[in-house]
Amino acid sequence: MSIEKILLVCLGNTARSPAAEYLARDYAKKYDVNLTFESAGFINAFSYMQ
């Protein structure tokens, strides 16, 4: 079994996990690693705006 996708999760997906996703993609490209990265959050950080 090999890893193909990595999900990076933080509380609201507003800063930490998107930044980690960007860095992971950059390192994967730099070192020619074939992985897919996505970011997500546990809560909707902007729910107060609705």
Automatic annotation (TrEMBL):
Residue ranges constituting the Phosphotyrosine protein phosphatase I domain according to the UniProt record: 6-42
InterPro entries: Ptyr_pPase, Ptyr_pPase_sf
A Pfam family recorded for this sequence: LMWPc
SUPFAM superfamilies tied to this protein: Phosphotyrosine protein phosphatases I
Protein name: Phosphotyrosine protein phosphatase I domain-containing protein
Source organism of the structure: marine sediment metagenome
